[in-house]
Structures are given as C-alpha cells and as structure tokens.
Amino acid sequence: MPDAQAPRLLCVEVYERKPLSYMTETAAALLAGLARSAVFVPTTTRTREQYGRIHLPGPAPRFAICANGGHLLVDGESDRDWQRVVAARLADECASLAEVRAHLLAAADPAWLLKERVAEDLFAYLVVERSLLPDGWTTELAEWAGTKGWTVSLQGRKIYAVPKPLTKSAAVHELVRRTGAERVLAAGDSLLDADLLLTADHAWRPGHGELADTDWSPPHVTALAERGVEAGEEILRRFTETVTEASATHAGPVRATVPAPGGTEAPVAL
Question: Regarding beta strands 71-74 and 158-163, do their DSSP bridges make them parallel or antiparallel, or are they unpaired?
Fold first, then answer.
C-alpha cells in the first residue's frame, strides 16, 4: 500500500539486534484482549529458542506449542511427559533423523544450498537460494521422504523435512484434554499448519502462503482476502468475535491457537 496509508506497527521480535517481526497496533490490542478471555496458545514450527525471541502483548500464555508439536511448553518449560510421548511415536513410526538428514545433504547441491540445520533434534531443514532450486527437486524429495514416514514443505527459502508423527494437531489434542476446551479456533498459512487447521472447530487462513497458493479451503476453514499484517489483524478480529459469541451462549472454554511469527513471514500470522 502507499506509505501514507500504512498502519503503525509494533515490533514483537528482535534478532541480532535488529527488529524482525511486527504486528499492527490494532492487532496488539485485539491479542491482549483475546488472551484475557480465551486460552491463547502460540503454535509454531520454531524451536524453543526461536520462540523465546517473541514478545507478544498481553499476559504471558500459559501454554505454547513449539517445534511443530515436538515441545509443549507449560509456563515456559517443556513438558517432560509430552516429550516422552513424542519420542516414542518417532521411534515407532518413521525413519531416524540421521537417515533423513544424510539423504538431504547427499541430494542437495552446494550451488544453491546456503545452510543446513537440525531443529531440537527432531527435524531438519535446508536454507536455499530459491531462484537456483531445480524444478521438481522438492517434489522428488517429498516422494522419497513419504516412504520413510516424513513430510516435506517448502516455505520461502526453507525446505523442511518433518516426521509425519510430529504434528501441531497432536499437541493441540493433548491441550484440549488438559484444559477441557470445548471449541478450538486456529489460523495458519503454511502446509505445516494444515493439520492444525483441520483439527480446529473453525479456522482461518490468510490470502498469502502455501495454503492460499494451493487454494486449500476445507469447509470449516475461512479463506481471507487480507495478506500480511492486515491478515493477522483480521484473524484476531474473527477470533475475538467468535469468543465473544461463545461467551454469550455460555459455551465451554475456547482455545485460540495460531502460529507464532516466523522469519520473513513473521508479519503475517499472529
């Protein structure tokens, strides 16, 4: 939009002494109110360390989901019971991280591979020069990974390889059990958010990201036209309206779960 029409932004993350992630001031006010009226659960593929850089307005969330469901934080600490559940499922249901990581490194070309990282000893990702990535490479990788019980997702410059049992929805189900929530609201924009949105009673996706690019729209997922920080603000507005309606009808606890900001995509999904 023209500079003169741009909204005022609040920085919610600093990385290497530079501001990185933002939300509108209106979104910040909406989030602070939502966190006081619902069980608000930041949900992200970020590691715990990366999530720790985010400083959201409002009261500190009691729960958070990190590492794509690999860690369930309770009052800032990873729940050990959940860690054991995740470790058992990964051991029983998919190939090891070491095997998948070795394949990633063997298949990648140094001409376009910028970095290779392992997150929380749970999954791996590559940072690539997107313009040099060969057509079909990610598809071939996904086909191979599927035979090993893993999934592949391309998000911006990052190619994620994640075990199929490692999902945000599994952690959501555990939190539903613990909190007694009768209604779950969710929002997200990437393929790694799809299972999260499917497990919700109602969900929203913005007009940008992998899900929008593929026109992914299950019946209970509302596709918004807004993009970027405007989408984040609109999602929080929809959350707030739904929570207010539930309170008016004396429904049970509502849980709102959305991806935390992530890198260059950070302004989009609060």
Answer: unpaired
C-alpha 55/C-alpha 209 separation (Å) is 23
Our CA dihedral for 55, 60, 61, 63, rounded to 10 degrees, sits at 90
**3-class secondary-structure state, position 113:** strand
- The two tokens of residue 141 are 């990788």
Q: What share of the chain is helix, strand, coil (3-state, %, to 5)?
A: 40, 25, 30
The whole model's pTM is what? 0.89
Residue 142, exposed/middle/buried by CB under 10 A (0-12, 13-18, 19+)?
A: middle
**Is residue 122 within 8 Å of residue 90, measured between CB atoms?**
yes
- Determine phi and psi for 153, rounding to 5 degrees: -140, 135
Question: Do residues 179 and 39 make contact, with C-beta atoms less than 8 angstroms apart?
Answer: yes
pLDDT in tens, 191-240: 899 999 999 999 999 999 989 999 999 999 999 999 999 999 999 999 99
On whether the CB atoms of residues 249 and 243 are closer than 8 A, the answer is no
**Cα-Cα end-to-end distance for the chain:** 20
Pick from 150, 153, 159, 98: which is nearest to 128 by CA?
Answer: 159
* Rounded Cα–Cα distance for residues 131 and 140 (Å): 18
Local structure of residue 191 (DSSP, 8 states): G
The string of pLDDT tens digits covering residues 152-196 is 988 889 999 999 999 999 999 999 999 999 899 999 999 899 999
Burial (CB < 10 A; 0-12, 13-18, 19+), residue 90, is: buried
